[in-house]
Amino acid sequence: MEATPRPDAHAVQRAETLHAQATAALAAGNPAEAATAFGEAASIGHPGAQLELARLHLYGIGMPSDPAQAVHWLERAEAAGHPGAAYLLALVAVGGTTLPRDGRIDARVLRAVQQGVTPALRAAALHFGRKPDPADQTRCVQLLEHAAGQGDIVAAQLLAERLVRGEGCPAQSDAARDLWTQLERAGVPRLPAIETPLPVQAAGPAGQLALLEALVAPDWAVLSETPAVRSIDGLLSADECRLLVACAQPQLRASMTVDPVTGEALANPLRTSHDASFDPLREDLALRLVQLRIAQAARMELVHAEQLIVLRYTPGQEYKPHRDYLPPSSLATHAPGAGNRTRTICVYLNAVDGGGATAFPEAGVSVAPAPGRAVVFDSLKADGSPEPASLHAGEPVKAGEKWLATLWLRERPYRGF
Fold this sequence. Notes:
417 residues, alpha+beta, Serine Threonine Protein Phosphatase 5, Tetratricopeptide repeat, Jelly Rolls, 3 domains, four-stranded antiparallel β-sheet, 13 helices
């Protein structure tokens, strides 16, 4: 994209003033006022204002969501050299709708890594952490160290887990303990112990960012034809499982269920877990790439997915037999254009000391938890009608904790990008 002409000194000062006013308005909870000021500064050519205006368009803050307009301003900011623009363009492109999923994703993320954009460092670390080459494992640790040094708490949590186990580096128990102590002082809890062999799926060329390897759907094992139930071992790496737990921990709330009459979310004794969901504002590139991998493993596109849910079950907690398809009352108020939940994919994030299997009573199938293992099942029949045989349950946890990530996938696109 062609760069815009350089504004004169008066215009530059005007843009700086507008940018400061917009930032203050946004902090004060006035997004519409912020959008107006960011828009004027962006039109003058202020890269920071272009980036912030793009965020408002992307996430629908103070205005209707407009990913295409967000991309327009991000490309302007990228042409001006803003370090965060390439990163956000790559994040949008992962969805494969507003921007194509192509090699520009890798180039943009590499640029963001070179410019020290913290969430890009974390995303690249997890990518290299899936690769078997020892040098890539070392790159993973180095990138986590860089991100943690910039204040990234999640990167610090992932780094501590690698240091204590000697993953990608010699074991460094003292360094891990120092990190855990610092995190504990900041109110950050320890992660559960998560260990699993590296995934056996395609990992791209050694030493290179090849983020679109997340599009390669691994083989699955057919456990039942009716209802359709499949399983996949080793879908996620230990780093990816730890990432989901680390991002969920601060947001955990008592789980709710949808009332079949009113469509409202209510507490229900059927479901006694705690969970956290990730709306688009909470999704960084690493989370988007993990979700892309999960959706592709279910043979569906990420834009069909509802918000990712991460659940924690403690001893005695369970999710009694239920079905995932939504009742008409809920569909009428909850993105009806996307249709019903047609497929679910659940990924276990840790080893459970006892219990916690996912059972399908009508199929006579039970899937035991294992880190990175996924279970995929259909809630609708081929003709789009509900499949009653999709009844399933999260059996009670008998010992330890069970962490689980769930992606509900709709018949038609649900997300904007």
